[in-house]
Amino acid sequence: MAAKNRNKAVKQSRKNTKSWMYYSPRVLTIIFILFISMFALDVFGNNYTFWQTVQGLFMHLIPSMIMIVFLIIAWKREWVGAVGFFLFALIYIGMIVRRPLEGYMLSYSLIIAGPSIIVGILWWLNWAEKK
């Protein structure tokens, strides 16, 4: 009887792990997209006309829109999420390195590229487990 309960507990533990592995990259991607989208709110602090505000908001939200497309595709094809978020981090770091480096730029790149790399790793782990 004890062996039967132990097997049941092991199966439940595996089910919980698979559930965590399935939902963590998806939820963290949504949170990351919301975080990146917050930077678009600085458009409202200026005295722009309505159309200038719409244009500025659209320009600031382009990375978020691209990440939403990656999320939609990656929901079923996890490797797309892994590649997409690694690329996003590399592109952002490349944009930072192109400029003359100052001390604060490293922390800025870690704030943006770091979560993207973590999300990419989670997508990759999800894909590897499924495979």
Quick tags:
mainly alpha; 131 residues
What does this structure look like?
The protein is mainly α. It has one domain. 85% of the residues lie in helices and 0% in strands. It has 4 helices and no strands. It has helices at 2-38, 50-74, 78-98, 103-130. The longest helix is centred in the first third of the chain and has 37 residues, at 2-38. The chain is elongated and about 70 Å long. The mean pLDDT is 87.
Please sum up the structure shown.
By secondary structure, this protein is mostly helical.
Q: How much helix, percentage-wise, in residues?
A: over 70%
> What is the CA–CA distance across the termini?
34 Å
Please compute the radius of gyration using only Cα atoms. Answer: 20 Å
Uncertain segments of ≥5 residues (pLDDT<50)?
A: none
Number of strands: 0
Category from helices, strands and their pairing: mainly alpha
State the shape.
elongated
Number of helices: 4
H/E series, N to C?
HHHH
Beta-strand percentage range: under 5%
- Estimate the mean pLDDT confidence: 87
Q: Domains counted in the coordinates: how many?
A: 1
The main pleated sheet reads as:
none
